[in-house]
TrEMBL record:
Family to which this protein belongs: Belongs to the ROK (NagC/XylR) family.
InterPro entries: ATPase_NBD, ROK, WH-like_DNA-bd_sf, WH_DNA-bd_sf
Name of protein: ROK family transcriptional regulator
Organism: Marivita cryptomonadis
Domain of life: Bacteria
């Protein structure tokens, strides 16, 4: 197999050994089963350094030998792969009405996932629920807590006290204090906190349509609408972790300026249908209405596509992504309809003849994409030498 991995040069001194281990894990994660020489080429490390690191990783239970592959002349090449049960990550998505949790193995495969309704969205209730779900998941999966590499927590932004504080799509009471510290003290684990859109983007990059992409945007349909931005393989967070709060930009719908989130989000479609006497509480309700060609839903979809076209122009011209992905808590059939009806802006840097990927795509990680993305944050930390520290 020929690797298209972009080299990230490592350093050979002993003090950089942890960094170099991450380089090796990243190379193997990217390609799959791979030999030492290819890892050395991808990482910039010497073959001897790679051999020493592989020996360490085998001893730590993070790698397995995956048979041999003929390399033309000479001896067959021993292949190495990530050991799925070499470690686990716990992912948590907090919404105002429920907590979603997932346990994934070292290659990102879900071991279990569940939804737990919340009696209220208070801090203590959320912390108690997450702690109980972690204990339950470990028992059900028969995994010791020592096998956990950490927990990823995602929730709607913005983080901190900002000019957007008090919007309908956020969690009340979390604009003070450090969520990472609060959850770390509760779970007694390393914790990485992100907004839901960024986490969803990482889920798509790990096991979805964005696998192999280093520069893309992800529009996440959660309670509101958020934008996850990945540049050069890294989440673009901003100074305070609030980059991508795109739901509050102004876009045009039927010639009128409105907030994007008010025209294209789950809250938006629920409010639109409620005005017509239709109570929508879950995704199955939306699928049923779409299957029956409900005219009120179809009108909303057309307006959502208008709003998205305006937003797409901004996203493409500001960030020059390989593609823009739609996903999250919205039925696939609705996302497909919106994508099909969205007019792609002509005056855009993304309007070019040498494109490899469509400008607008639907994600494939499903309705729990942000939950899986929360777990992916932990794995990303293990596999990526340059990831920023968790807040």
């Amino acid at each position: 197999m020929v690797s298209t991995l972009k080299p990230q040069l490592g350093a050979n001194p002993e003090r950089a050994r942890s960094h170099n281990k991450q380089l090796v894990l990243r190379a193997i994660r990217h390609v799959g089963a791979v030999g030492r020489a290819e890892i050395a080429r991808a990482s910039g490390l010497s073959t001897q350094a790679v051999s020493n690191i592989i020996s360490d990783l085998l001893g730590e239970g993070l790698l397995i030998e995956q048979g041999v592959r003929s390399a033309g002349r000479g001896l067959p090449v021993q292949q190495y792969a990530i050991k799925p049960d070499g470690g686990y990550a716990f992912g948590v998505e907090v919404r105002p009405t429920a907590v979603f949790t997932a346990l994934v193995d070292l290659v990102g495969t879900p071991v279990l996932a569940r939804r737990t309704p919340l009696r209220n969205a208070g801090k203590s209730t959320i912390l108690e629920t997450v702690s109980a779900q972690l204990a339950s998941a470990l028992i059900e999966a028969r995994i010791s807590k020592g096998a956990l590499m950490g927990a990823g927590i995602v929730m709607p932004g913005p983080f901190g006290d900002t000019g957007l504080t008090g919007t309908e799509s956020e969690l009340p009471g979390w604009n003070t204090g450090d969520p990472a510290e609060i959850f770390a003290n509760t779970l007694n684990l390393p914790v990485f906190v992100e907004n839901d859109a960024n986490a969803a983007a990482m889920a798509e990059r790990m096991n979805g349509v964005a696998r192999g992409l280093d520069d893309f945007a992800y529009l996440y349909f959660g309670q509101g609408l958020g934008l996850g931005l990945v540049q050069n393989g890294q989440i673009l967070q901003g100074a305070f972790g609030n980059a991508g709060e795109i739901g509050h930009i102004q876009v045009l719908v039927d010639g009128h300026a409105v907030e994007l989130e008010s025209a294209t989000s789950r809250l938006s479609v629920q409010a639109c249908l409620a005005r017509e006497g239709l109570d929508v509480t879950n995704m199955e309700d939306l699928i049923s209405l779409y299957s029956s060609a409900n005219r009120h839903l179809l009108v909303w979809l057309d307006k959502a596509a208008q709003a998205l076209s305006s937003a797409l122009s901004i996203i493409e011209n500001l960030f020059d992504p390989q593609t823009v992905i739609l996903g999250g808590a919205m039925p696939d059939v609705l996302l497909d309809h919106i994508i099909a009806r969205t007019a792609l802006p002509e005056r855009s840097v993304s309007n070019r003849p040498d494109r490899v990927h469509p400008r607008l795509m639907r994600g494939t990680s499903g309705r729990m994409t942000a939950t899986l993305g929360a777990a992916a944050l932990v794995l990303h930390q293990a596999f990526t030498p340059t990831i920023a520290e968790a807040r």
